[in-house]
Amino acid sequence: MGDRSQPVSAENLSPALLGRLPSEVRKPAYDRTALRPGIAHIGVGAFHRCHQAEYTDDLLAKDFDRWGLVGINIRPPLLADTLGRQDGLYTRLIRQNDEVEARIVGSIMRVVDSQDNAAPALDVLASPEIEMVTMTVTEKGYCHIPSSGALDLDHPDIVHDLANPQTPRSVPGILARALELRMATHGRPVTLLSCDNVPTNGTILGNVVRTFAERRGGKLADWIEANVAFPSAMVDRIAPAPTAADIDTVEQRFGYRDGAVVVGERFRQWVIENRFAGRVPRWDLVGASFVDDVTPFEHLKMRVLNGAQTTLSYLGVLGGFEHTFEAIADPLLADFVRRMLTEETLPTLMPVPGISPTAYVEQSLSRLTNTAIRHRNHQIATDGSQKIVQRLLNPIRDRLAKGGGIELLSVPVASWMAYLIKASARFGRAWQVSDPFAERIATIADRIGSNSKLLADAILGIDAVFDPSLAANAMFRAHVVADLDGLLSNDPIGFVRQVCSGPTDAPLKQPARSA
Ligand code: CS2
């Protein structure tokens, strides 16, 4: 076919296009030109665009108050290339199986690329008009030790930032520098609100920033104590990394192009600890909850929804499934996850105001069956070392403390190990992985080969992930060894079947294969 048969490419999303969009596409119901920057957000990925920016868009439509968002990226991708070109506008699609609902979100006023140099980020974060800083910087962005929550003083970026505090590259270093600039100029208070799936995320963020400030010396730590709040928050909405197919969906269904489209499920939740400094956007007017204690909500979400996702991701990859919805469509994996959550995870949860835990399990599992949410198992499997503490190891520890069994919860822990082991050269580099501990585990696998006991011993010795008292627990170790043996066999899913068919209080599993 010649060039003339190429379709004329559709117009790109821009403020000028808003008035000409199809009526079924919902548009910002307020005057964007009257927005004033008040919130800065670090990490403008799919999740932010599907969550905090949407809540803010709702708030602007309901109770304007001029809360504009300034987006900052300190890691790829570049925002100017996507959102910048569209003046911060983007399409948020809600997808539920065959249904598609489109909405243009207008709350992001401006975007700042600060990947090469922290100066542009610091300019925004230190400015007096910013009173709320939210962030989604992924679990590893906090530079903390997952098993203890303390700032990792050996982290190369932290070492760099303590030596070069005015040109930081880590999140704790950038925030500490921004707070120092605030202290030295206008002195206005600010809330730093973590929106990552890190347990007690506000406490961890407060720890890493304060520890960094203390190391710097001077008055900064005292100023932070008096002027900065670090509330914890539970955030929830499944919003996988967007793909070229999502951009095409917008073009085919609605007739325009949007390089920054995001796709999410209908469900969303945001529970924020009522602990603020300075002015606060009233997100509680549009569906968020401000509460005294986020912990019960956080345990529920991370152990049930995220625990199920992580379990399905590793078992899914081992079983040859590409996406969550495909893994959960397998009756055996669905049965395994439901039983794990019901029999072992639920008893570790605190009562959660207004929520029935068993209904929450069913609702979570049903969310994962949505075939329009194409969440890749490898995406969820990424950075498992930063996720398994809150999703799996903490409930395991709680079970063991109460004398409960962990024969199901130990399986995904071993499946995380098997996932990284199989990515090693000695195991044929079954797939590419991304995890701060991937290299360490590949080295272990290359050295040890297929002896599950020695493999488990070596990996359980990584104390940044496994706190030594848990790693020393005989029941936990024995389960992990037996599970690893089964999951590294030629029939990992057969092993899961065997676990499912065994009595749930069996003290130990049978090794699935001969040594
Ligand atoms: C997922 C989360 O990639 C992952 O780790 O488990 O991004 C998950 O989809 C969200 O926490 C849902 O709120």
TrEMBL record:
Residues 293-486 form the Mannitol dehydrogenase C-terminal domain. Residues 38-284 form the Mannitol dehydrogenase N-terminal domain. The keyword Translocase does not apply. Gene3D superfamilies: N-(1-d-carboxylethyl)-l-norvaline Dehydrogenase, domain 2, NAD(P)-binding Rossmann-like Domain. It comes from the Bacteria. Keywords: NAD, Oxidoreductase. GO terms for biological process: mannitol metabolic process. One of its GO terms (molecular function) is oxidoreductase activity, acting on the CH-OH group of donors, NAD or NADP as acceptor. It holds the Pfam family Mannitol_dh_C. This is Mannitol dehydrogenase family protein. It comes from Mesorhizobium atlanticum. The lineage of its organism: Bacteria, Pseudomonadati, Pseudomonadota, Alphaproteobacteria, Hyphomicrobiales.
